[in-house]
Design goal:
15% of the residues lie in helices and 34% in strands. It is built from 2 helices and 14 strands. Strand 13 and strand 14 form a beta hairpin.
């Protein structure tokens, strides 16, 4: 029985190298450049809806260490209003998406649902209150929180759907090293069990 010819071996090796290179590039792109993310809950309504698919920029704040995580170089820090994806500090197997409300050194306080930063009102125009702005739970951090100073290399985040979001009010701050990237735009969106496409949302920039 004759063995494989040198030509067939070289072709097989070329294919194997091409596949390996493609895999390495895919991992590098996902780790360092862009990543797809799907919205599984309504915590960011009305900005982001269940079934939205978006891309996040992993280069927006700098260059991350591939696979290992953390920042190799951080060119600039998140700013209030940025919508970011990050590893959930309580369970790092999960990714969360929220809006940055306050950054390191700022003092956050919530009084009867009003957000104060350094004693001045600061809230996103996109903030939504499912239970109404007048319905307040006095003893819950949902509606009354702080004052607390954001520690170095951390941010305070909240969901736009304030009455239905599990965020920094309940589990604390987000470390810079846990930030995956900044949300860019929607590349796909569908609604309901029948998967009706929300054509009007595709391509929308996330603000």
């Amino acid at each position: 029985m004759e063995g494989d010819s040198p030509r067939s071996k070289s072709v097989a090796r070329a294919y194997a190298e091409a596949v390996a290179l493609a895999l390495v590039m895919a991992v590098a792109i996902r780790s360092c450049v862009v990543q797809a993310f799907k919205i599984p809950s309504g915590s960011m309504l009305p900005t982001l809806q269940i079934g939205d698919h978006l891309l996040i920029s992993k280069l927006h704040y700098g260059l991350r260490v591939p696979l290992v995580g953390g920042w190799l170089v951080m060119s600039h820090q998140p700013r209030p209003g940025d919508v970011i994806v990050f590893e959930y500090p309580v369970d790092r197997s999960q990714d969360f998406i929220k809006r940055v409300i306050a950054v390191e050194g700022e003092i956050v306080e919530i009084r009867d649902k009003q957000v104060l930063v350094d004693r001045r009102p600061r809230d996103a125009a996109e903030a939504f209150f499912a239970d109404g702005i007048e319905t307040v739970q006095p003893r819950s951090p949902r509606d009354n929180y702080g004052p607390v100073r954001v520690p170095p290399r951390h941010v305070f985040v909240m969901g736009d759907n304030r009455d239905r979001s599990y965020d920094s009010r309940f589990w604390g701050f987000v470390n810079f090293d846990d930030i995956e990237g900044k949300a860019l735009f929607l590349y796909w969106s569908w609604d309901g069990r029948d998967r009706w496409v929300r054509w009007e949302r595709i391509g929308d920039e996330i603000q």
